[in-house]
Amino acid sequence: MSHVVLLVDDDPGILSALTRALRKEPYTILCASSAEDALRTLRSHPVDVVISDEKMPGTHGTELLGKIREEFPDTVRYMLTGQPTLEIAMQAINEGAVSRFFIKPCNHVELAMAVRDSLRHKDLVCEAMRLLRTVKEQSALLENLEHQVPGISEVRRDGGGAVVLNREDLPEDFDEFLKEIREACDSAEEQMGSLGAAEG
Questions:
Q1: CA within 20 to 30 Å of 147's CA: 8, 28, 67, 168, which one?
Q2: Which of 120, 86, 114 is nearest to 102 (CA)?
Q3: 105: preceding bond cis by omega (within 30 degrees)
């Protein structure tokens, strides 16, 4: 699924420039001209990254990013400012927990790279969480099976580490069982080969 980046600035020229800076990236770009518009967008669309101007009429960027942190803590937050003062920086850190500051006019290459790195990191965290949930589910299933059939999860190995099977552990048609294993291995190798060719 395509990542979504939300650009927030009351200057249409800045929004156009930021959109052009990210046009070659595989993202869906959304734009908002005020903090209120940005919040409405966030409440109706999943957004991965928000890049907000600081000095806007009404609600400033620091306040907006603070609200986003409360409502959408997984959304990456960047700030744009034409007045990079220590006070603004401290306020943004305390209220908005921003990931990066960019000073106007910002370097578009640096901005695109920062967004790319943040999304890559976010994807890795999501995948790690998914794997953790899978491990917990499998552990719970194994524990349940062990409770129902004591000893089912026990694996016996010889001195060289090979799995030891008793005669009663073997399937009735052992040759057919080996054939299925070989076919599964061949299929896995073909899939890995196709994946490697696609990545190359």
A1: 168
A2: 114
A3: yes
Coil vs helix vs strand at 82: coil
pTM: 0.64
Q: What is the C-alpha to C-alpha distance for residues 113 and 27, in angstroms, rounded to an integer?
A: 13
What CATH number is given to the structural domain containing 93? Answer: 3.40.50.2300
Total number of domains constituting the chain: 1
Instruction: Give me the domain span that covers residue 122.
Output: 1-191
List phi, psi (to 5°) of 23.
Answer: -65, -30
Q: Is residue 198 part of a domain?
A: no
Concatenating the DSSP letter of every residue in 93-128 gives IIII--SEEEESSP-HHHHHHHHHHHHHHHHHHHHH
pLDDT per residue as tens, the chain (200 positions) = 589 999 999 999 999 999 998 888 888 999 999 999 999 999 998 999 999 998 888 888 888 998 999 999 989 999 888 776 667 767 667 666 687 878 887 888 888 889 988 888 888 887 888 888 888 777 777 777 666 656 655 666 777 767 555 555 555 665 666 676 677 667 666 766 665 555 55
What CA–CA distance (Å, rounded) separates 168 from 140?
27
